[in-house]
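User: I'll paste a sequence; please echo it back and then give the predicted structure.

Assistant: Echoing your sequence first, then the prediction.
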Amino acid sequence: MEEKVLIIFPGALGDFICFFPALWRLASGREVDLLARTEYADLLPQTVRVRSLECYFISRLFAPGAEQDEELKAFFGSYGAIWSWMGKSEPDFVRHLSALSRGELRIFPFRPADPGLHIADYYLSCLKENQPEESVSAIPLRSEGIAWSDGFWRRNKLEEKKILALAPGSGSLEKNWPPEFYKVVAEWWERELGGRAVVVLGPVEEEKTNSMDFWGPMLVAQRLTLGQLTALLSRCDVYLGNDSGVTHLAAMVGVETVALFGPTAVAQWAPRGRRVTTVTQKVECAPCVPAAMKHCPHRKCLASLYPASVIRVLREVASDLAETNLGEQAS
């Protein structure tokens, strides 16, 4: 009988993608329940059951008397092992979960103490595992996502076009390359290379840029589920984005990924994948600590990274991709 394991993970999309290698290790040969954001179910095999982290069982751990709660005893006591990357610094959480657990319990800090350690390697190190070989992840493409992307390609006549996906947002405004720079790149891609640019927007970017007015005639994909987003990215030729969860996802599904870094550390946050290029201006004050990033008066690590520099990188990437495709056709 497979061991039943509970995994508690509080991170956003980029954190979760970096957690993937550790999650695959934990899920191997085990029955896994994951407490995290429910939308992550679109990225996981159905053998991993996902439940919202915002549930009674978690919130109750922070309150007095949790160790006497019969519902919590039954829930947490049903697992042979519990692995949590939440609550390490909360004494009540640790004490209550320790009292309720009937099997192995491991609680880790959400972030590594060493800022030079890549976040994916940190999560693996919690399992006493080494860095995995870089490979395209087996993120399942959901049938609903594939059907949506098929319709999106047909409606917008994207067949036979070289597609550049652009994601101008992230979880933090300070990490974002200026949207007007993205627009310059999109226009270049369509004008010079004859391709199509697809701008991927989340709710924050839709609100900040007044999306339809700002992007004009550009093709915009918005309000996507993670299943739809994964299917869309898997069909694109090249992806350009900030240090963001979408960028990590693009790298993991195997699209040629160009990631723009400003105030955050490439060593710790570079997307993992076979086809990843990171671009940074390498100014003297970057990377910086979050407090400095939030109050930076100039943002020159991104503001001085002009479109011409990024276009040079994309031109090289597109050229290499064309040569690779010709080689595959010849063979």
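The chain has a mean pLDDT of 91. The CA atoms of residues 18 and 100 lie 29 Å apart.
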